[in-house]
Amino acid sequence: MLEARELAIGYGRTQIGSGLNLSVNEGEILCLLGPNGCGKTTLFRTLLGLLPAMSGTVTLGNRPVANQTPATIAQQIAYVPQAHAPPFPFEALEVVLMGRTARLGVFGQPGHHDREIAHNAMDRLGIANLAHRDYSRLSGGQRQLVLIARALAQEAPLIVMDEPTASLDFGNQAQVLMQIASLARDVAARGCGVVLSTHDPDQAFALDARVLLMKDGHELAQGTARDVLTGPNLSDVYGLPVAVETTSSGRKVCMPALTSHH
Ligand SMILES: Nc1ncnc2c1ncn2[C@@H]1O[C@H](COP(=O)(O)OP(=O)(O)OP(=O)(O)O)[C@@H](O)[C@H]1O
C-alpha cells in the first residue's frame, strides 16, 4: 500500500538521511524508533508527499506519491502530527470534522453523516465530552486525542502518527496503544496500516509491531520487535547500555542501565 525504496530525505540541498526502505500494508503496524533528530519526522513528511524525496521513490497505492494531489493522498493516508495549538479558536468537533474534508466535494459542507462519523471517532477515544470545547485551550494530551479522532474520521486505509503518545499521561498512553492495535488488527472492520514513531521501545513490543530502527538518517535494523530491539542494537542507537528483559507475563521490556561508571 505504502512503499519507499532507496529513499533519500532532506530539506533543500541538506540531506538528512538516505538508503531508506520500507513498506506497510493494511493490518500492519510499523514502528519507527531512533534518537532525537535522526529524521523520523522528515521521513514522515516525505512519505506523505509534503516534502519532495531527494532521491528514491515513495509509492502509495501503486502510484508515485509525487504525482498525486493532496486530496487523493488524504483519501489514502491520515496524518496525526505532533499536537500544536492553532492560532485561532476552533471547537474540538470542528477539528475532527476537518478529517472529512478530503471526502467532500469542492464546495461540499460536512453533512449529518460526517458529523456522526466525527462524533463516533471522539466517542471511540473517550473524548465525546470535549466536542464543544475550544481546541486551543485543551491540554496537550487532549489535543493529541482530538487529532487522532480526526485521523479516524478521515477513514483512510493508512494512518501515519508522529509520536502519538508523546504528551499523554500513563492511562491515555495505554488507551491510545490499544486503539492503534485495534485499528490495525480489528478483523471486523478491515484493518488499517499504521506507521508510528515513538521514543519508547516497550511500545513496539506491546504492539507486536514491525520495527525500523534509525540512527543518523539511516536504517540500523528492520524486522520484528524481538529481532531488532536487542540490547546491543539499542545500546548502539542510544549510546548507553540497555538491557532487554522478559517480564513474568512474557512481555519484553527495555531498561537503560542507570549506573554511572566513574
Ligand atoms: N525545515 C527544516 N530545514 C532544515 N533542517 C530541518 C528542518 N526541519 C528539521 N530539520 C533537521 O532535520 C533533522 C531531522 O529532524 P526530524 O525532525 O526529522 O527528527 P526526528 O527524528 O523527528 O526528531 P525528534 O525525535 O526529536 O522528533 C534535524 O537535524 C533537524 O534539525
Give a description of the structure:
The model has no long low-confidence stretch (mean pLDDT 91). This protein has a single domain (2-256), classed as P-loop containing nucleotide triphosphate hydrolases (Rossmann fold), CATH 3.40.50.300. The chain has 9 helices and 12 strands. The chain is an alpha/beta fold and 262 residues long. It has a 6-stranded mixed β-sheet, sandwiched between helices. A 4-stranded antiparallel β-sheet has the order 2-1-4-5, with helices on one face. A two-stranded antiparallel sheet has the order 11-12. It has helices at 40-47, 70-76, 92-97, 112-124, 140-153, 170-185, 201-207, 225-228, 231-238; strands at residues 2-11, 14-24, 29-33, 55-60, 63-64, 77-80, 158-162, 193-197, 210-215, 218-224, 242-246, 252-256. A hairpin with a 2-residue loop joins strand 4 and strand 5. Helix 4 packs across helix 5. Adenosine-5'-triphosphate binds next to strand 2 and helix 1.
Which characteristics define this entry?
nucleotide-binding, ABC_transporter-like_ATP-bd, 6-stranded mixed beta sheet, ABC_transporter-like_CS, binds adenosine-5'-triphosphate, 9 helices, alpha/beta, transport, Rossmann fold, single chain, 12 strands, 4-stranded antiparallel beta sheet, Iron compound ABC transporter, ATP-binding protein, 262 residues
User: Largest sheet at a glance?
Assistant: 6 strands, mixed
Mean pLDDT: 91
Q: What do we call the CATH topology? A: Rossmann fold
Low-confidence stretches: none
- Which word captures the global form? globular
Bound molecules: adenosine-5'-triphosphate
Using DSSP, what is the number of strands? 12
What is the element string, with H for helices and E for strands?
Answer: EEEHEEHEHHHEHEHEEHHEE
Instruction: Give the CATH superfamily.
Output: P-loop containing nucleotide triphosphate hydrolases
Strand content: 25-35%
Radius of gyration based on Cα positions? 19 Å
Straight-line distance between termini: 50 Å
Which CATH architecture is right?
3-Layer(aba) Sandwich
DSSP helix fraction: 25-40%
Strand order of the largest sheet: 6-7-8-3-9-10
**Count of helices?**
9
Please indicate the count of domains: 1
Which structural category do the helix and sheet elements fall into? Answer: alpha/beta
* CATH class type: Alpha Beta
